[in-house]
Amino acid sequence: MANPKHSPSVLVLFLVLLLLSIAASVANSDVFSKSLSPSALELKHEKLTHLHFYFQDILSGKIPTAIRVAQAPTTNTSSTFFGAVNIIDDPLTVTPNINSTLVGRAQGLYALSSQEEASLMMVMTFSFLEGKYNGSTVSVLGRNPPFNKVREMPIVGGSGIFRFARGYAQARTNTFNLTTGDACIEYNVYVLHY
């Protein structure tokens, strides 16, 4: 009688089980994504929210909210300040008055990105501090030619209430001081989100 330890059928069964186990682990190891239904994240109906506030960009005084962190070499004679980069932590207020209710902060940077005309590349997050939006954010990434009457920049995302956000922000200069560089910009932001 054949020894069961060396039986071909037991050996074949063992090899089949081993191969199936390896195939299953390989199949599961390279899966890093899967499709989900929006209901799995409790996403219901998409909403459109309009936000209105004033962006206070202060380069002067004892406590500026925008600070130059990079500048082109002095050999650059561009009238557009091409190459300059400012980091911002600007207050967002209800009215143009800087002492009005603070609803959030614009945090990020803007870079003077054109050699031909004044143009800013805006990379910033509006971080809200007021009411039901407290702790939520909206992210903006786009071109801002500040001397145009109205500038439009895309909303590229958000968090909190604004998770899965998309939309656009319109900026209009309320005041601009040529001597100090301080500015107050009116923003109308239209955000689609769940």
Summarize the structure.
By secondary structure, this protein is mainly beta. The chain is built from one helix and nine strands, in the order H-E-E-E-E-E-E-E-E-E.
| Tally of contiguous helical segments | 1
Main sheet specs: 8 strands, antiparallel, barrel
Got a strand count?
9
User: What percentage of amino acids are in beta strands?
Assistant: 35-45%
Tell me the overall shape.
elongated
Q: What gap, in angstroms, lies between the N and C termini?
A: 71 Å
The SSE order reads HEEEEEEEEE
> Biggest sheet: strands side by side, in what order?
1-3-4-5-6-7-8-9
Average predicted confidence as pLDDT: 88
Q: Which structural traits does this protein have?
A:
mainly beta, 8-stranded antiparallel beta barrel, 9 strands
Question: What report would you give on this structure?
Answer:
It is built from one helix and nine strands. An eight-stranded antiparallel beta barrel has the order 1-3-4-5-6-7-8-9. It has 194 residues and is mainly beta. A hairpin with an 8-residue loop joins strand 3 (85-93) and strand 4. 11% of the residues lie in helices and 43% in strands. The model has no long low-confidence stretch (mean pLDDT 88). The protein is elongated. The chain has one helix at residues 8-29; strands at residues 47-57, 66-70, 85-93, 102-112, 120-128, 137-144, 151-159, 166-176, 183-193. Belongs to the plant dirigent protein family. This is Dirigent protein. It is found in: Secreted, Extracellular space, Apoplast.
